[in-house]
TrEMBL record:
Name listed for the protein in its UniProt record: Glycosyltransferase
Membrane topology recorded in Swiss-Prot or TrEMBL: Multi-pass membrane protein
Localization per Swiss-Prot or TrEMBL: Membrane
EC number(s) reported in the record: 2.4.-.-
Keyword vocabulary terms for this entry: Glycosyltransferase, Membrane, Transferase, Transmembrane, Transmembrane helix
Gene3D superfamilies in UniProt: Glycosidases (3.20.20.80), Spore Coat Polysaccharide Biosynthesis Protein SpsA, Chain A (3.90.550.10)
InterPro entries registered for this protein in UniProt: GH (IPR017853), Glycosyltr_2/OpgH_subfam (IPR050321), Nucleotide-diphossugar_trans (IPR029044)
EC class (word): transferase
């Protein structure tokens, strides 16, 4: 086969056939764009300023009474691993010494037992309340008590002793056991002895108060779910209640504080400003009342995050790098370095928007403003996510998860920008560079010979005869029709077609191949070899298409231009009035051909389809024919031809109409094939599509092919997010319920919820919601996509509001199928060539539901998850409400799929004839067909 290469003539690499004319200066072309970008960027930075304005907080000019002290550095923790060195402990002691004269510790092992000696030897005037850690391990507890007694007796700066920390609250130690430990220690040390528990434990177990020398209570209103404005009143009420319960005994506040970051607990919001507001207000009241307290805590402790949640790592007055989070006097900002983040985000968004708009300076100011606003808003959200990530302590595993989530946000940004650009270009563009009227060539005009290839497989003879009759009516001087039947075993199907070709004359040739490799691509390659030598153009149509008589006379003249490699007309359908299901599909298909293909044509980046296409034979031969390895051989050929430098022409006029799938199962199989084939093409041509140094495609072509298929990757990510959201919701539902109920009944047996909770956490489940910033973009993108469909259809597709909604329903119903196809395409090389059944009797209702059984299961699971999260969290936080909304939004595509399946199962009622549609019944009678739709 002789190779042919497209002639390389000068051209505008983005859109035109001819060299670009001289253009005006940069400012003349882009002045309006730059002005809009500057305006939106200023508004963006202004929003950052409004959110991060300095907040007036009561000043505190005294000295903090005490700090809970745990000198763990990055990568260290009490749960194992490396422990702080003496030098690190000394550095932390010197850091806190100017702020306070008192610290408390939590254990007498793991290097913590050295704190009193290091503080004394360095000459720091620090008094130490010496702590110990007790749990269910009795042997370990005995060793801990021995070390506690030894250190207390040998140290001159230990002023008090604490036996255990919240051991009774956790259930590790019974009150009676704790009394025994306290009595053991009191007999052997000179310092006052106590244990540390939340305020309510002391109220519930007065025997503890009788056993200690002083009462040590924890007051942490954040865990009570209180708003910060009520927190101070709450803790003073509880302090006074405990003091009244144990008159004559000193009450020490062992822990008091507020986290600077973390998920909300009820009405409690963890933030830097709230931490400063609570603590500085408390310091002033504590100084007035002479309270003895320890702030929870000196330094952030990220090692606690894995078992106490994200907030547990952010209670410190200093962060992990030993930087003070806020001063004791003056105003406080939530993000002190906000301007750098805001400026960087605005710059990235502006450059990205300019990259798009520079290619279409003709877009009116409304479109520029819309795209700039979308870009700035989405980049701002992404920047906030990265900012939150930079301030969040995480394990290596959590870091990987966050990085993947951020990568997902970047992909969403790319999708938003490409969709926004398409919308702006469609609604507000003023110049069309690649639209030419497809006017019929006058009689006497020299026209190339066309060889029309019609592949069939197990097609009903009546339908194929209709297609052949329409081809016989073509108003064109020189053409041939090659009918290639492959893999049809029943002679009753192919023999009538062969006979009909014989009756139509010498122009029509029939080939029965029997068992033949390569599916449709193999049949078309056979036809290419049998094509008349003097044919210059090859046409391909599907077996159900009725072409207009002037199809060739209108499209073939484009090949008089030597740079044209192929032409394409829309896929259109003649059975859109065959019931509601058909009507929904009709308008869902129409959006791509009336809007998407028109926009892609501006940059010579259309998708070639296996019907209503004409191809220069030399270009087809030069490309090696049709790809038999690819399930979408037509789209692959179009991309290959563009890589070889050929131009394409898209004419949006309908020149032939076929029939649509008859049921939802067929509708899904068709879209599954398209999506799987797209992944095959991307894998095969990835260098041309993704490597910026590969110049075989123009920038505009690469943009449209990558971003045109990107929404299908979004469906794949959406499927992954649905599965992940369902798994996450198990933890969000069950773990909170295990804290409410002590036992749970499963299959008639009682189980302790503590064990269930431990098991859930051990497999990576959590009762913490992802940060709000991760949830908002997905909702925003869903809303934008719906608005985009609505506006594009209103601008380009001649249908009413209900048909727009129907088109959106049809598209959403395929999301799950597309997502599966994309994932399968990543891991599989080949897929079964699923042919699309058409014009069959509608299935029964049960059959309709069965076709969407996967989607129905996912829909019910998402609804159950939403109900479970609502029940477990009672809508107490914005995170809980937002997560529930996300689950319900995720269920919409599945609801759409179930709805489409039910609609397809309904008896068809002939509706009003759609614009451009013709009745499905033709002169040959009603056809029952199984045909391929590309």
């Amino acid at each position: 086969m002789t190779a042919h290469v497209a002639p390389r003539i000068p051209r505008n690499p983005e859109s035109g056939f001819s060299p670009a004319p001289a253009r005006p200066g940069f400012l003349a072309r882009h002045g309006l764009t730059l002005a809009v970008l500057a305006l939106v960027a200023a508004a963006h930075i202004g929003a950052w300023w409004a959110i991060n304005r300095p907040v007036a907080v009561p000043d505190f000019r005294g000295q903090v009474n005490g700090l809970a002290f745990a000198p763990y550095q990055r990568g260290q923790g009490a749960e194992g691993g490396p422990t702080p060195t003496p030098e690190q402990i000394e550095g932390d002691l010197r850091k806190v010494a100017p702020m306070t004269r008192h610290i408390r510790t939590y254990s007498a092992h793991g290097g913590m037992e050295r704190i009193p000696d290091i503080a004394w030897s360095t000459g720091l005037d620090l008094k130490i309340t010496l702590g110990s850690w007790l749990d269910k391990r009795l042997d370990r507890n005995a060793a801990e008590i021995r070390r506690l007694i030894q250190i207390a007796r040998e140290s001159r700066n230990v002023e008090r002793v604490l036996v255990g920390n919240e051991a009774v609250l956790r259930g590790d130690i019974t009150p009676a056991q704790m009394v025994g430990y306290i009595q053991q220690v009191r007999r052997q040390v000179r310092q006052p002895v106590s244990t540390a528990e939340p305020w309510h434990v002391w109220m519930d177990h007065p025997e503890l108060g009788d056993a200690v020398d002083y009462i040590t209570i924890h007051l942490l209103p954040y865990w009570e779910g209180l708003p910060v404005d009520d927190a101070l009143r709450f803790i003073m009420e509880k302090f006074d209640a405990v003091q009244a319960r144990f008159p004559g005994k000193k009450v020490v506040i062992g822990e008091v504080g507020w986290p600077s970051d973390g998920v909300a607990q009820g009405a409690a919001r963890a933030s830097r400003v709230n931490q400063a507001l609570f603590l500085r207000s408390f310091f002033n009241i504590a100084e007035q009342r002479g309270l003895d307290y320890f702030v929870m805590e000196a330094f952030d402790q990220p090692w606690k995050v894995s078992f106490e949640g994200r907030a547990a790592g952010h209670w410190g007055m200093y962060d992990l790098d030993r930087h003070q989070k806020w001063p004791l006097v003056g105003s406080v900002q939530e993000t002190p370095a906000w301007f750098g983040w805001a400026f960087g985000a605005s710059l990235i968004a502006s450059l990205a928007t300019f990259f798009f708009l520079a290619r279409r300076p003709d877009i009116r100011w409304q479109g520029k403003l819309m795209l700039a606003g979308l870009s700035q808003g989405f980049v701002a959200l992404g920047t906030c996510v990265v900012l939150a990530m930079s301030e969040t302590y995480m394990s290596a595993t959590a870091g990987v998860v966050w990085t993947l989530l951020v990568f997902g946000q970047v992909l969403l940004l790319g999708l938003l920008l490409s969709d926004g650009f398409e919308l702006a270009e469609t609604l507000y563009g003023r110049v069309s560079k690649r639209r030419w009227p497809a006017l019929p060539a006058p009689d006497g005009t020299a026209l190339p010979k066309v060889s029309i290839h019609l592949p069939i497989c197990n097609e009903p003879p009546h339908m194929v005869r209709e297609t052949l009759d329409a081809l016989a009516e073509l108003d064109y001087p020189d053409f041939e029709v090659l009918v290639i039947d492959n893999n049809t075993t029943d002679p009753a199907l192919w023999e009538p077609v062969a006979e009909h070709c014989a009756r139509l004359g010498a122009r029509f040739r029939f080939y029965h191949l029997g068992k033949w490799p390569g599916f449709k691509g193999g049949a078309l390659n056979f036809a290419l070899r049998e094509t008349a030598p003097d044919a210059a153009v090859v046409g391909v149509i599907d077996s159900d298409y009725l072409v207009r008589p002037d199809w060739l006379r209108r499209m073939a003249p484009f090949f008089n231009r030597p740079e044209v490699g192929f032409t394409q007309s829309p896929q259109d359908y003649r059975d859109g009035n065959g019931g509601l299901f058909k009507r929904l599909m009709f308008w869902e298909y129409a959006g791509f051909f009336k809007a998407g293909m028109v926009t892609r044509n501006e940059r010579n980046a259309i998708i070639q389809h296996g019907t209503m296409t004409l191809i220069r034979k030399s270009a087809l031969e030069g490309a090696g024919g049709w790809a038999e390895w690819c399930i979408c051989e037509d789209s692959e050929l179009g991309l290959k031809l563009m890589r070889q430098g050929w131009e394409a022409v898209y004419c949006p006029d309908s020149m032939g109409r076929g029939v649509m799938p008859d049921d939802f199962s067929a509708y899904r199989k068709q879209r599954h094939r398209w999506a799987f084939g797209a992944v095959q093409i991307v894998k095969h041509h990835w260098k041309a599509l993704l490597n910026p140094f590969d110049r075989s495609l123009t920038q505009g072509q690469r943009f449209h092919f990558v971003m045109g298929w990107f929404p299908w990757l979004g469906d794949a990510l959406g499927l992954a997010f649905v599965v992940g959201g369902l798994v996450w919701s198990i933890g969000l539902t069950l773990i909170p319920l295990t804290r409410i109920h002590k036992t749970v009944e499963i299959f008639g047996h009682e189980f302790a919820t503590e064990g269930l909770r431990t098991a859930l956490v051990s497999v990576g489940l959590s009762d913490e919601f992802p940060i709000t910033l991760f949830m908002i973009p997905s909702l925003a993108l869903f809303a934008f996509k719906f608005a985009q469909i609505w506006l594009l259809y209103r601008a380009r597709v001649s249908c009413g509001p209900m048909d727009r909604l129907g088109a959106a329903l049809g598209g959403l119903a395929l999301s799950h199928t597309i997502g599966k196809a994309v994932w399968q395409g990543f891991w599989k090389k080949r897929a079964h060539f699923a042919r699309t059944p058409k014009m069959e009797n509608a299935p029964a209702l049960v059959q309709g539901l069965m076709t969407a059984r996967q989607e129905a299961v996912f829909m019910l699971l998402l609804w159950l998850a939403a109900a479970g999260v609502t029940l477990a969290h009672r809508g107490g936080t914005w995170e809980a409400i937002l997560w529930t909304v996300i689950l319900l939004v995720q269920s919409i595509p599945y609801l759409a799929a179930v709805s489409m399946a039910l609609i397809a199962a309904m008896p068809a009622k002939v509706a009003a004839v759609l614009p451009g549609a013709v009745p499905a019944q033709s002169s040959a009678g009603t056809v029952v067909a199984r045909s391929e739709v590309q």
